[in-house]
Design goal:
By secondary structure, the chain is an alpha+beta fold. The chain is about 45% helix and about 25% strand. It has helices at about 1-15, 20-30, 80-85, 125-150, 160-180, 185-190, 205-210, 215-230, 255-270, 295-310, 320-325; strands spanning about 35-45, 50-60, 65-70, 70-75, 90-95, 100-110, 110-120, 195-200, 235-240, 245-255, 280-290, 315-320. The strands form two sheets. Strands 1, 2, 3, 4, 5, 6 and 7 form a seven-stranded antiparallel sheet that branches. It has a five-stranded mixed sheet with strand order 9-10-8-11-12, with helices on both faces. The radius of gyration is 23 Å and the shape is elongated. It starts with a helix and ends in a 17-residue tail after the last helix.
Length: about 350
Amino acid sequence: MQEELLNSVVKITKTRDIDSLEYSLASTIHEFIHCQKIAVYKDLQIPDKLVVERSVALEEVSDKEFEWYERSIISEPDNELISCLQSACTITVQSVDGIERRWVPISIQERPVAAIAIVSKQMSSGDQVLLNAFCRIFENYLTILHENERDKLTGLLNRHTFDRRLKQLIERQVVKKHKSVRSADVRKLHNDATSWLAVIDIDHFKQVNDKYGHVCGDEVLLLLAQQMKKFFRSNDLVFRYGGEEFVLVFEPTHFDAMNNRMKEFMELLKNTKFPFVNNLTVSIGMARISPYDFPITVIEKADKALYFAKEHGRNQVRFYEQLLADGEIIEPDVEDSDIDLF
């Protein structure tokens, strides 16, 4: 038993990203503490509102079978879950049939950020101690990973995390395409909703730093990051890519909806009062994320669209595919490319 526990701790701390850590925790708790269901709920830290995501869920179907559920936003969280996230206290509710529901808070720097939800028959004292130990190990390691994945100034995901997340997204799209797409559906796929990548660059940001100093520049970056967190959907990923450049990865949507949303965001910035800056604008380059793209290819396409926007007046959003179709930019032939694949 002791050897198995040590191996489980090794397995939990072997992971290098938060998603894998959550899956490892859920499977470990299920292995050592008999429970009917275990789930990880996260507060997505959206300013001024509570948005809860169920990032991992594992349910026992029979004695030897269990089922994983995909991540999803919880539209109406249980009151006990909300209380757990707000109070950072463990909450336990037992029904008349002996089924116990328990919510264990997970905190980073004394701030509750998640809750582990367990559904089981009444736990023994030994199982409760074990559950608490697993949750504290998870909490400690989550703190380390969180610091490694986040930009220290804005709290957004950092560039290192972007590379991995985009690669994972493309891999998931490949799996979905193999499951659902037939050769006759290719034309339909082109017109369907797809994921998008945006590169956002603050116009004339160097002038802000030169005129008002880097402290003011940092305040501008911080306020812009907060506005992005508020405006975009909780499922959309927002990264600080470097300096005054940000990258966003969007859930599947159609071109018109994506175009309108980005224009609404630019209008929001137009009406936002930034410190010392009267009129802050951004230029945006957009590109589709296709299942068989290389991550570097997607970012290069969005960068080309961004460069076009900045060269043609700034304060605008441009889509790579539209520029290509209109002949505004020319896609290089693979044979003429300077990139060495091997």
